[in-house]
């Protein structure tokens, strides 16, 4: 992907209410499922492992819920697979009544390396605001918390940054409310076990990208891009068959165009539908290809 960024904020754009209304009518309902942790793991540096880290199981979630945490303690939770959703948890103080807030830091990772290596060393050209982390101060305990921001993860690292000396913190429950607009995929008959594993990962990736639009990625960007849509629509044809989602995406591109009719390379849908000021000629041709198919 090119690192060149277009700035075309002065380009005249036109909204097409009829197309935007059709897109709104096709907004899918999100399927919400509860996913609980599978294990508490310890990360071990290993050169031969994926990104240099291996996870060893140290206890079950049930055992972890019996362990009060002190300042400086941290744990890594393995949800067992890749999910997109919202973190929910409940916790309480242990010991004397809490006389200070509990300060927690959460790191969310698709791989172990993301929760093991410090974000402060990130030097990429993409905004560091995409790094999945959140600080939280709990003024009142016990607390039941549902984080409002959506995350994409398999691993969750919880760090206790600060408590008072009078109490410790104990979790009673941690879960994800996962979201997707995809249903169950059509079964695939694949004899080769390695190809079957690759296909399983690919289908799960598509499922997690299927939200209110086909997102180019549920972790970063989260936008509707024409280049991604073309590939996602082709795979959707033989997996989930969610054709109304493809139609919705096409109407979104058609609903906000350049004055001369050219569609943008990508579209934002929140807080309102707005085409980006990035225009790529080959991406515009993809619109024709997706529409034809």
TrEMBL record:
Alphabetically ordered keywords of this record: Hydrolase
InterPro entries for this protein: 6hp_glycosidase-like_sf (IPR012341), Bac_rhamnosid6H (IPR035396), Glyco_hydro_78_N (IPR049164)
Entries under Pfam families matching the protein: Bac_rhamnosid6H (PF17389), Glyco_hydro_78_N (PF21104)
Entry GO MF terms: hydrolase activity
Domain Glycosyl hydrolase family 78 alpha-rhamnosidase N-terminal: 37-177
Residue ranges constituting the Alpha-L-rhamnosidase six-hairpin glycosidase domain according to the UniProt record: 195-265
Example GO biological process: carbohydrate metabolic process
Stated name of the protein: Sugar hydrolase
Native source species: Klebsiella pneumoniae
Lineage summary: Bacteria, Pseudomonadati, Pseudomonadota, Gammaproteobacteria, Enterobacterales
């Amino acid at each position: 992907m090119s690192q060149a960024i277009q700035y075309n904020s002065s380009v005249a754009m036109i909204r097409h209410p009829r197309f935007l209304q059709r897109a709104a009518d096709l907004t899918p309902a999100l399927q919400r499922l509860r996913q609980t942790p599978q294990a508490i793991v310890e990360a071990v540096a290993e050169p031969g492992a994926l990104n240099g880290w291996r996870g060893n199981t140290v206890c079950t979630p049930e055992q972890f819920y019996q362990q009060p945490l002190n300042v400086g303690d941290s744990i890594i939770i393995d949800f067992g697979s890749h999910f997109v959703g919202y973190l929910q948890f409940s916790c309480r103080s242990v010991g004397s009544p809490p006389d200070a807030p509990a300060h927690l830091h959460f790191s969310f990772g698709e791989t172990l390396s993301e929760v093991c290596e410090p974000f402060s060393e990130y030097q990429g050209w993409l905004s560091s605001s995409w790094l999945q982390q959140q600080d939280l101060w709990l003024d009142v305990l016990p607390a039941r918390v549902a984080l409002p921001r959506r995350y994409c993860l398999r691993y969750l690292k919880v760090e206790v940054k600060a408590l008072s000396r009078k109490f410790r913190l104990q979790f009673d429950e941690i879960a994800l409310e996962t979201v997707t607009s995809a249903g169950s995929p059509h079964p695939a008959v694949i004899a080769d076990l390695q190809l079957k594993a690759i296909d399983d990962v690919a289908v799960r990736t598509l499922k997690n990208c299927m939200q209110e639009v086909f997102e180019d990625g549920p972790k970063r960007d989260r936008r509707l891009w024409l280049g991604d849509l073309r590939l996602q629509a082709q795979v959707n044809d033989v997996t989930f068959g969610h054709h109304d989602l493809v139609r919705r995406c096409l109407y979104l591109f058609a609903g906000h165009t350049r004055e001369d009719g050219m569609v943008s390379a990508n579209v934002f849908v929140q807080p309102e539908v707005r085409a980006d000021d990035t225009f790529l000629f080959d991406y515009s041709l993809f619109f024709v290809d997706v529409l034809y198919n």
